[in-house]
Amino acid sequence: MHTISGTTTLICLLGHPIAHSVSPRMHNAAFDALGLDYAYLAFDVTPDDLPFALRGLRTFGARGCNLTMPLKKAVIPHLDELSDAARLSGSVNTIVIENGKLIGHTTDGIGYVDALKKEDGFDIPGKTITLLGAGGAAESIITQAALSGAKEIRVFKRKNATFANAAAFAGKIADATGCAISVLPMEDADALRSSIAGSDLLCNATNVGMGDDARTLVPKEFLHKGLFVSDIIYHPAETTLLSDAKNAGCRTANGANMLLYQGAAAFWLWTGHEMPVEAAKQALNG
Length: 286
Ligand code: NAP
What we know:
Blueprint: E1 9-15, H1 23-34, E2 38-44, H2 50-59, E3 64-67, E4 81-82, H3 84-89, E5 94-98, E6 101-105, H4 108-120, E7 128-132, H5 136-147, E8 152-157, H6 163-177, E9 180-185, H7 189-197, E10 201-204, E11 228-231, H8 240-247, E12 251-253, H9 256-271, H10 277-285
Parallel strand pairs: 1-2, 1-3, 4-6, 7-8, 7-10, 8-9, 10-11, 11-12
Antiparallel strand pairs: 3-5, 5-6
Bound molecules: NADP nicotinamide-adenine-dinucleotide phosphate (NAP).
Residues 108, 133-138, 157-158, 160, 162, 186, 205-208, 210, 217, 232-234, 255, 258-259, 262 line the site of NADP nicotinamide-adenine-dinucleotide phosphate (NAP).
């Protein structure tokens, strides 16, 4: 077990609420496994307190931080530079502090793409994707999948007050990347059925299915054997969507590895080391 000393460098997680986070367990186990002199702590910080927290991190010589809700967008005006994916997605979940400069990155989308590739052998380039939801996680996935060379992304979202914003976001990413991206109403069952029929990957990036919610947005008969079905929810480990997909003969993945690989991408940005994935997995499951 790593001993914190006078030379230990701080990395942290800022968000509100924060107590439930598993990120400290994952990162501290990875630092220990490689003998790196960092410590990762979580701090409950509201948007109003964010400028003071960032100033503190600079003052303390911290290497950087992760950000979670509700700070991923609120942090952007406080940063000195942004990665391409962070600028495009309008979201930051990782800051690296380089010579006092705050550089914002987003690793949620990279985590999603890397998890599918490294753990399931599923490559995004050239693939057609049906994506459910258009919230923060969905925006990161859309951005990174488009940057990574997806052929087409069809986003299904409820026809409510934020539909036009989602369509504008999709247009911006499509223009920047050349990926064909459309936003369709979730209520159009025929469009959903035909989109899934022509897709390689179906991804649920909504809250539906989380915790005790046993609902699924996809009728079982829409699922087909050649489809890879991923649900970014990791609690429960198997949502109704994933259990229906297994029964239909689909390959499946839940959100646990997305969490792991977004952490691995941040770990690499801070330390320049590959995260020891097995040690991190053990910490997450322990
Ligand atoms: P968010 O920004 O609040 O977005 C939620 C999305 O779900 C919205 O598009 C919303 O639709 C949709 N939605 C909610 N209830 C719905 C319903 N009854 N029918 C249809 N659509 C519905 O949340 P988020 O941060 O993107 O997170 C979404 C999920 O991903 C959560 O379960 C979260 O735990 C999970 N997540 C996992 C990871 C990971 O590492 N595995 C990372 C981030 C998030 P509208 O747009 O129509 O409102």
